[in-house]
Design goal:
About 85% of the residues lie in helices and about 0% in strands. By secondary structure, it is mainly α. It is elongated.
């Protein structure tokens, strides 16, 4: 269960910080800044959860690992389910942050 929860947390962080940088400060950061936010989120999660789950934090990566024979189908399905839940939680937190900010 640790692997699945770590994938949930990793995907949540990726959505929150990566998409958050684009949604909140995209015009200030530009393409390079947004790319850096995504990249730094992935690096941080690789260090935090890499030893636990492999830090896929993306269903496409998990599917690639399954195709290569590095995952069983059961693990693939659970990884994808928990990654989707993490993405929904990250998007919900981002929506709360954006909606609670004062209008300028």
């Amino acid at each position: 269960m640790k692997r699945y929860v770590s994938e949930l947390i990793g995907t949540m962080v990726l959505v929150l910080f990566g998409c958050g940088s684009a949604a909140i400060a995209g015009s200030v950061l530009g393409n390079l800044g947004i790319a850096m936010a995504f990249g730094l989120s992935i690096v941080a999660m690789a260090y935090a959860i890499g030893d636990i789950s492999g830090c896929h934090i993306n269903p496409a990566v998990s599917i690639g690992m399954w195709i290569d024979g590095r995952m069983e189908a059961k693990d693939l399905i659970l990884y994808i389910i928990f990654q989707c839940i993490g993405a929904i939680i990250g998007a919900a937190l981002l929506a709360v942050l954006i909606n609670s900010a004062p209008s300028l």
